[in-house]
Amino acid sequence: MRRPLRSPRAIRVPFSRRSVLLLAAVLASACARRSSETPSDAATRYPIEGVVRAVDVSASRVTLEHGAVPGLMGPMTMVFPVRPAAVVSSLGTGQRISATVVVDGDRYWLEDVRRDGRAPAVSAGAPASGSAGIVTPRPNRGIAVGDRVPDFVLTDERGERLRFSRLAGDPVAITFLYTRCPVGTACPLTTAKFSRLGADLAREGFGRLLTITVDPEHDTPPVLADYAKKAGANPARWTFLTGSPQEVAKVASDFGVLYYPDRGQIVHSQTVAVVDADGRLANIYYGETWEAKDVLRDMAQAKEKARKG
After folding, report:
1. d(CA 22, CA 18)
2. Residues 37-65 as b or e (16 or more Cβ within 10 Å = b)
């Protein structure tokens, strides 16, 4: 089994000037070696399928939320260069594609990209086909930055109902995960970053954090309470939420988060939303490249905006 591919944007290293400089040198060296577009005889190829979550035409890259690639890596969301570059402009967010991953030394890219249509739209409130009890969000329903977040009520780790609008007056960061997630660069990494963010907010004396499960049938309040304890969460600032499958899918849809069951796991968007003190979406991050310091900055700006009125 090959080691999982890692996008340069998804690399996580200790936050120090030395490590940042070292990483920059490594990436510069790698870029210098990528001048050739022709794969070597040692290149290997693997079929891949997934849903496009972001398109960067200028860099000829897509962010792909994909299932397991046998012999290479498990399901995750990561950035892939695409060849030929002209293909990228024909792709759209939410589109399901199949392609070939080419791995050639320290280089990798997608080729033979085939568009298979939009991701299946399963109505929120209806079980996904073949998955009893699973409800998936409606695609293409996410609100835009500046929009007011639709109010919702979910159940916290103590079993109490929490109405989102009651948090008004304080900036809130929201993310989605599930406690059984086996991909280290997905949910566990998000939880570690939220733990760091929680410590920063405690030091600054403002802000709230919400973690919403995408596996509500398993992630009951007691399960979330245990997960929160292991994460070192301060319940006064960081709340873990669940609800009925329909409730959770509706909230996920509002934030543009998609998820669906796949071979015993839940493939889901990695998203962090920042909501200002007035209940409007201030910023939103997709993928695993966000940093706690950036979310803290957004929340501090939202707080200052509220102070000035």
Report:
1. 6
2. eebeeeeeebebebbbbebeeeebbbbbb
Cβ contacts of 31 within 8 Å, gap of 6 or more: none
190: alpha, beta or left, given left = phi > 0 and alpha = psi -120 to 50? alpha
Q: Is 182 helix (H, G, I), strand (E, B) or coil?
A: coil
71 phi and psi angles, rounded to 5 deg? 85, 0
The answer to whether 47 and 28 have CB atoms below 8 angstroms apart is: no
E strand map for 57-160: 61-66, 76-81, 95-104, 107-118, 153-156
For the chain, state the CA radius of gyration: 20
DSSP 11: -
Residues 6+ apart with CB under 8 A from 42: 104, 105
Low-confidence ranges of the chain (pLDDT < 50): 1-4, 6-36, 117-132
DSSP string for residues in 227-245: HHHHHT--TTTEEEEE--H
- The residue behind tokens 């960067």 is 56
Q: Per the omega criterion (within 30 degrees of 0), is the bond before 14 cis?
A: no
DSSP category for residue 147 = S
Query: Which tokens hold the place of 288?
Result: 């695993």
> Which pTM value belongs to this model?
0.61
Question: What is the model's pLDDT at position 37?
Answer: 61
Burial of 1 (0-12, 13-18, 19+ CB in 10 A): exposed
Contact criterion met (CB below 8 Å) for 51 and 258: yes
Do residues 100 and 48 lie in contact, with contact meaning Cβ atoms separated by under 8 Å?
A: yes
User: Could you tell me the domains of the chain?
Assistant: 8-22+40-118 (2.40.50.320), 153-308 (3.40.30.10)
pLDDT recorded at residue 133: 56
Q: Provide the pLDDT for residue 302.
A: 95
Per-residue pLDDT of 171-200, as tens digits, reads 999 999 999 998 877 899 999 999 999 999
